[in-house]
């Protein structure tokens, strides 16, 4: 990667971190999803283990997963099956804040033309824009995971007397599937931002077209986590390949003229 | 190798508007070329074509040997551009902006900082360098844009109405800086402007464009020869003997039209011999403004 691309990434990330109105919401929702919500789950499990709904939920689990301490089984199921899906959503939500205004935001501030006068190709500028959103989203995602893990383990030890054991699936989700899905979403949102005429239009397209599709996939994810780890790995590799292909081909027909229109 | 070459360059926008029509011209390295014409004449479109922001409909252009339509990055690496719509980041300081653009052009961090400092000093923006651009005046931003265009040491500078929207004092400051830069650095300058008097001070050659067509190009003398065949001779005299062919323009002012300056001594001798008292004789060459108005439609209307 050229230093000029790194300069764009640095500038874009600084644009978000120096703007409190964007930076605070960037953290609030992920932390709600990874700290507050899981804590409520763990407390509910601890204080309402005999609930008939919880029992019927337990019956849905495979035989092998139903042995041992019921509290820990349910908490582990939430931890290893439901919470990973959040880590498909968090990076997309975080990235969409930056990605939606990647090109059209510059166009509205009349800085896009200046950026295009630099000795980088449209593809390189596009790649830098995608990477800045992607890197920020991964940072938010990994910090959220670290905070969630610390809080949940403390709660588990304190309430149930035993820490929760993260499954192998977590590694696949955090380091392969989540980055790949995030990269797909970011590439599509940035591509759309290059065609949009206003930031609002770009954000609406992101919210109404791209995010629902991704969330539909996320919705089915708790089930996928129950499947074999190798299937999860295969899915991750497939998404990563799709992300790479999209990134390579997304700007094929892009021209300066089209971007400035 | 010419710094800039345009060969039968045309650009028609998707809506059908023909912004540039069959324009051909070339600039030698180090030339300061004034591209003059009314609003909507095609000046900005030409600058965008020369930087690869637009693709020509017909014809070709080259900047220091590179075709901007095929190798825009090569053109950008050797050129600096200042246009009305090429602004900088309000959330960054002047210094941060310049360092960012220096890095975009591949300058190492320490060199970028040094060069940014020097340019801010040159543009008299040193005091404001650590303030965010949101608090800068339009004149200061325009000077910073000039610094930004020079940050990578370009060989050619495209300036599209660099003083547009500025108050007279700021415009004068920007003009002075461009003039000094053009004189001292030897950069080729392609300047689009409405300020004809100022253009005449710094440009070595001119091109006049209207409705996308190049009306004329050349040095001031070449344009004079093309548009005005005669010189205006102005004489201030106590009295003008009759039959000399002069028309009275003021209390003691008389004016006539001559073919060349060589006619002046004989005319002066004849007036003196006929008893006229001559206080002042001046042969007035048409300036760029008169040439511009003689060639462009708004000017022709104004003269009528």
TrEMBL record, chain A:
Domain of life, per lineage: Bacteria
CC annotations in GO: membrane
Primary subcellular site in the record, as a coarse category: membrane
One function term, GO molecular function aspect: ABC-type transporter activity
Species per Swiss-Prot/TrEMBL record: Candidatus Mediterraneibacter caccavium
Keyword Protein biosynthesis among UniProt keywords: no
Keyword line: Membrane, Transmembrane, Transmembrane helix
Domain ABC-2 type transporter transmembrane positions: 79-228
UniProt cross-references to Pfam families, sorted A to Z: ABC2_membrane_3
Membrane topology: Multi-pass membrane protein
Annotated TM spans: 21-48, 82-104, 130-152, 164-190, 206-223, 229-247
Protein name: ABC transporter permease
Record's subcellular location: Membrane
């Amino acid at each position: 990667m050229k230093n000029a691309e790194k300069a764009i990434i640095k500038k874009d990330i600084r644009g978000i971190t120096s703007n409190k109105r964007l930076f605070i919401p960037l953290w609030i929702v992920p932390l709600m999803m990874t700290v507050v919500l899981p804590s409520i789950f763990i407390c509910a499990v601890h204080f309402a283990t005999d609930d008939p709904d919880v029992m019927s939920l337990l019956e849905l689990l495979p035989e092998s997963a139903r042995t041992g301490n019921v509290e820990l089984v349910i908490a582990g199921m939430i931890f290893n099956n439901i919470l990973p899906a959040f880590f498909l959503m968090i990076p997309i939500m975080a990235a969409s804040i930056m990605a939606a205004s990647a090109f059209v935001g510059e166009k509205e501030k009349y800085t896009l033309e200046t950026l295009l006068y630099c000795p980088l190709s449209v593809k390189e500028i596009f790649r830098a824009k995608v990477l800045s959103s992607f890197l920020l989203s991964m940072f938010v995602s990994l910090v959220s995971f670290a905070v969630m893990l610390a809080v949940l383990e403390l709660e588990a030890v304190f309430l149930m007397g035993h820490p929760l054991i993260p499954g192998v699936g977590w590694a696949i989700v955090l380091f392969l599937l989540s980055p790949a899905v995030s990269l797909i979403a970011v590439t599509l949102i940035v591509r759309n931002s290059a065609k949009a005429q206003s930031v609002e239009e770009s954000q609406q397209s992101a919210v109404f077209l791209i995010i629902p599709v991704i969330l539909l996939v996320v919705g089915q994810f708790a089930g996928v986590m129950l499947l074999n780890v190798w299937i999860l790995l295969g899915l991750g590799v497939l998404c990563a390949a799709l992300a790479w292909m999209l990134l390579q081909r997304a700007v094929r027909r892009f021209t300066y003229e089209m971007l400035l229109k | 190798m010419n710094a800039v070459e345009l060969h039968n360059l045309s650009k028609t926008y998707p809506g059908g508007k023909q912004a540039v029509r069959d324009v051909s011209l070339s600039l030698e390295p180090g030339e300061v070329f004034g591209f003059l014409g009314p609003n909507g004449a095609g000046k900005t479109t030409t600058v965008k074509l020369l930087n690869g922001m637009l693709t020509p409909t017909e014809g070709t252009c080259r900047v220091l040997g590179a075709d901007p339509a095929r190798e825009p990055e090569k053109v950008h690496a050797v050129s600096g551009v200042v246009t009305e719509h090429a602004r900088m980041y309000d959330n960054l300081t002047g210094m941060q902006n310049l360092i960012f653009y220096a890095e975009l052009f591949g300058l190492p961090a320490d060199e970028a900082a040094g060069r940014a400092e020097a340019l801010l000093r040159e543009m008299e923006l040193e005091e404001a360098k650590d303030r965010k651009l949101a608090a800068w005046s339009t004149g200061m931003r325009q000077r910073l844009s000039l610094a930004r265009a020079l940050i990578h040491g370009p060989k050619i500078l495209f300036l599209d109405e660099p003083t547009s929207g500025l108050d007279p004092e700021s415009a004068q400051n920007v003009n002075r800086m461009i003039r000094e830069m053009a004189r001292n650095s030897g950069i080729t300058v392609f300047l689009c402007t409405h300020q004809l008097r100022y253009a005449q001070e710094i440009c070595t050659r001119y091109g006049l464009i209207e409705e996308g067509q190049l009306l004329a190009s050349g040095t001031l003398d070449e344009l004079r020869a093309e548009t005005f065949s005669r010189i205006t001779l102005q004489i201030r005299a106590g009295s003008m003997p009759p039959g000399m062919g002069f028309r009275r323009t003021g209390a003691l002012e008389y004016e006539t039209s001559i073919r060349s300056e060589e006619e002046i001594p004989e005319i002066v001798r004849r007036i003196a011999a006929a008893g006229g008292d001559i206080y002042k004789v001046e042969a007035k060459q048409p300036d760029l403004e008169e040439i511009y108005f003689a060639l462009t439609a708004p000017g022709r209307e104004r003269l009528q």
